[in-house]
Design brief:
single chain, 359 residues, alpha+beta, TIM Barrel, Immunoglobulin-like, 2 domains, 14-stranded mixed sheet, 4-stranded antiparallel sheet, 5 helices, 18 strands, binds zinc ion
Length: 359
């Protein structure tokens, strides 16, 4: 008997930081691995979860066997000429898939939809989480400039770091995400390896590694529903190529973790980030919308950085932490702590944010 991937099945019942990969392909699209073997590979790397995100296909959902060995989140990479986005949290066929899952890797958006916004809104309305993938990685970059970014729950700011063009495209995606935050949007930053092939095989896709980058998510339990809630509601997540991080703000005796909203408070908040397994010669940094707030060197893999941050009930702000290596390359980054009134921006399009990036 085959079992299907499920949103509610709990692999571990305790709240904790869980680590995984949000972007993985099987041989049901253009990956090489059959589902069960892929799960075995990922479980062997010690990951807690991965999301299966085949191009315009969900055939793998029944092929993971009775126990894949780790949590497999059912997803789909909607792969359009207009752009690629992951829909996470599918349990089976939905009518809109008739227009998407047509047996081809890339298709144009069906004329049944007025634009990507309409399809994003539809999938989101069905309880799924939406995440734009590799938004600035040519030739698969996001092209629908009219997309309403309020419909996007997450942005894959780091796609496969071993793909040469991501050396440019990922920092630009982080910049794009930063401008979303400054515009009052709160998409959660996540990462995905975009894994397709067997390690060591001749590369049509050079160098992908399962779980590179890792996204750490704090979740109430290890289930697909728990991880997706951690990404969408809690935003308590960070992305890493190796270092482990903690980051929080405190005001008086209140503590606000990664992803938390301090709300309408005023005062001088204390910020703290700690890093372990950091790169030799690297630095821990804390950044806000206006730039660098503080930094500290990593010594013997460790750093502890303290900084002060003025918050005001009438000013919208955010602050986040990251780790850079000796060459200045970012190797881990957290989602923000937010403060001040929450913006409820009118429609903000991809094109508006991109123009700000270019500008
Ligand atoms: Zn893609
Ligand atoms: Zn992909």
């Amino acid at each position: 008997m085959t079992s299907r991937l499920s949103l509610s099945e709990v692999r571990r019942a305790s709240p904790a930081w869980y680590r995984g990969d949000f972007h993985v392909h099987t041989n049901f699209s253009d990956g090489r691995y059959p589902p069960a073997a892929l799960a075995q590979l990922y479980a062997g790397r010690g990951l807690d979860f991965f999301a299966i995100t085949d191009h315009n296909a969900i055939g793998s959902f029944t092929e993971f066997g009775e126990d894949p060995g780790l949590l497999v989140i059912p997803g789909l990479e909607v792969t359009l000429e207009e752009g690629h986005w992951n829909v996470f949290g599918l349990e089976g066929w939905r009518p809109w898939m008739d227009e998407v899952c047509q047996g081809r890797i890339t298709i144009p958006l069906s004329a049944k939809f007025s634009g990507t916004s309409e399809l994003l809104e539809l999938t989101r309305g069905q309880g799924c989480l939406t995440s734009i993938n590799h938004p600035l990685l040519k030739p698969w970059e996001w092209r629908d400039l009219a997309t309403d970014l309020r419909l996007v729950d997450a942005i894959e700011v780091w796609n496969d770091p071993l793909w040469p063009d991501n050396a440019q495209a990922s920092p630009r995606a982080v910049d794009f995400w930063t401008r979303c935050l400054n515009a009052g949007l709160r998409p959660t930053a996540i990462g995905g390896s975009d894994f397709h092939v067997l390690p060591g095989e001749a590369p049509p896709y050079p160098g992908e590694e399962p779980g590179l980058p890792l996204t750490w998510v704090y979740a109430r339990e290890l289930s697909a529903a728990g991880i997706l809630e951690g990404v969408r509601q809690r935003r308590k997540a960070y992305i890493s190529l190796g270092p482990q991080m903690q980051f929080f703000a405190s005001l008086g005796d209140e503590h606000f973790d990664i992803g938390a909203d301090m709300g309408l408070r005023s005062g001088r908040a204390r910020l703290k980030t700690t890093v372990s397994a950091g790169p030799q010669g690297g630095r821990a940094r804390i950044l806000g919308g206006a730039g660098l707030i503080g930094e500290a060197p990593i010594v013997d893999g460790q750093a502890e950085l303290h900084a002060k941050w003025g918050v005001r009930a009438d000013r919208r702000q955010w602050v986040r932490a990251e780790v850079v290596d000796e060459a200045g390359q970012t190797v881990a980054l957290t989602n923000p702590v937010f403060a001040g009134p929450e913006a409820r921006p009118a429609r903000v399009t991809f094109g508006e944010i991109e123009r700000r990036t270019e500008g």
